[in-house]
Amino acid sequence: MSVEYLGLSEMNGPLIVIEGVEGAFFDEIVEFSVEGSGAGSGTSAVKKKLGRIVALDEDKAVIQVFESTADMSLLNTRTRLTGRPMEIGLSADILGRTFNGLGQPIDGLGTVKAEVFRDVNGQPMNPCTREYPRNYIRTGISAIDGLTTLIRGQKLPIFSGNGIPHDALAAQIVEQASLGEDSDEEFAIVFAAMGVKYDVAEYFKRTFEECGASAHVAMFLNLSNDPVVERLITPKVALTAAEYLAFEKNMHILVILTDMTSFAEAMREVSSLKGEIPSRKGFPGYLYSELASIYERAGIVKGSSGSVTQIPILTMPNDDITHPIPDLTGYITEGQIVLERSLYQKTIYPPINVLPSLSRLMKDGIGAKYTREDHQDVANQLFSSYARVGEARDLASVIGEDELSPIDKKYLQFGTAFEREFVGQGRNENRSIEDTLDIGWRLLSILPREELDRIDTKILEKYWEAL
Fold it and tell me: What 8-state DSSP symbol labels residue 419?
């Protein structure tokens, strides 16, 4: 028999405290009945709300409320423990649908007929059951596919900054991502946005509909005016949906999470309200473990033909890559894609700085079996040559471009062409991996052949002759 608790002991923003609780557990879902006056009718109206237990101390429970607490008081609220964690109803019908941050439909198409209900907190993936990621996911973006290749089952974040077009890049990846032209496996995208403005959310929805991608996208939207505690649940709800589609429906799922900075700042706000001792930049000491609990829900499980791949997007405050959020993210994930403000100011899109960007799993998912035999050599040479461009530019800023050696001038020419033609591409331009590698070879031909010292001789002879 369920027990209702009358009244509240304390209230502090989205957090409330009730005392005398028995049999409660961490992360348990709580239902509130808030009594209020019916408008002008003299009748009493009862509003239902949900919350989650986030701390327990003997018979005292601290509960996060997922909605506004403005109409709640210590006397007009009744609380009932449900005896279950937060769950979401799932079926293949979630594709093509739009939900709020708690997994409730907001597209006016009614509720989803659920086949199963899953705990949004997920289950730890047994390391012994993981398979090593191999195959790649094509995004159609040269700087990613060619130099920081995304591998199925990988977690590869995008580090951006305020004002840099990471939203446009995310939308383009959703529109263009695929398993390759020869694959007949099922592929879908789970898109979760946290703390985004209304116009940004509408941009995503409109873009996905116009390009025809919405049919294979499940969207979870937490807007900036939605409750801040909802942001803490949104990525978990989205990943629960992704795991269901991947490991029970055997689909390959790409999860895009934007913006993880909003998630972390929501965690800091709630932690402050709970009175916890802050760590770096005011964030709680468990920021690392919370980020890891999200990022580590990517991978491939033995016995399942599906996979979960993550692209978390985060904005670096003041473009500081040493800020706790990108810093801790870099420890957990397998590389990063860094967007550079100076490239954006040159009107280069996408403004990806390839030098600090890397994909640690790239080497095992490219080559003759997966992309093309020359992929690794071309990527190595482009990295090496573009690094030399930086040295030539530094020297030119000191002695002047006219005083540079002929080879340094060639590198300056290569650098400009590389940024404009390889990194830069149209917002609707979807390049195949062959197109990307061919552009790379054409740009390398700007340099003398003897400078191409990162390419195997046999590969160089084969492709150099074709230029």
Answer: I
Q: In this structure, what DSSP letter does residue 249 have? A: S
Residues 242-249: what's their mean pLDDT? 94
Contact 227, 110 (CB under 8 A): no
Characterize 311-347 residue by residue with b for buried, 16 or more Cβ atoms within 10 angstroms of its Cβ, and e for exposed: bbbbbbeebeeebbbbebbeebbbbbbbbbeebbeee
Please tell me the distance from the alpha carbon of residue 397 to that of residue 249, in angstroms, as a whole number.
57
Print burial letters for 352-384: b (CB count within 10 Å at least 16), e (below 16). bbbeebbbebbeebbeeebbbbbbbbbbbbbbe
How is 403-417 classified by DSSP, letter by letter? GS-HHHHHHHHHHHH
pLDDT score recorded for residue 151: 95
| Encoded amino acid at 235, one letter | P
Dihedral angle sign, alpha carbons of residues 434, 435, 438, 443: negative
Confidence category of residue 276, pLDDT binned at 50, 70, 90: confident
Confidence of residue 57 (pLDDT cuts 50, 70, 90): confident
Do 97 and 112 meet the contact criterion of CB atoms below 8 Å apart?
yes
Contact 231, 266 (CB under 8 A): yes
Peptide bond into 324 cis (omega under 30): no
Residues near 436 by beta carbon (within 8 Å), at least 6 away in sequence: 142, 145, 146, 422
- Alpha-helix runs per DSSP H in 211-323: 230-247, 260-273, 287-295
Say if pTM beats, i.e. exceeds, 0.85.
yes
pLDDT (average), residues 250-257: 95
What sign for the dihedral angle of Cα 257, 262, 265, 271?
Answer: negative
- pLDDT band at residue 3 under the 50/70/90 scheme: confident
pLDDT digits (tens, 9 = 90+) for 282-319: 999 999 999 999 999 999 998 888 999 999 999 999 99
Neighbours of 25 (CB within 10 A): 12
The residue assigned the tokens 């109803």 is 89
CA distance 20 to 6: 11
Mean pLDDT for the stretch of residues 404-420: 94
> Which run of H or of E encompasses 384?
helix 375-399
Q: Is the pLDDT of residue 72 over 70?
A: yes
Taking alpha carbons only, the member of 417, 122, 67, 443 closest to residue 295 is 122
What distance, in Å, lies between the first and last C-alpha atoms of the chain? 78
Distance CA 17, CA 294 (A): 27
The answer, yes or no, to whether residue 229 has pLDDT greater than 50, is yes
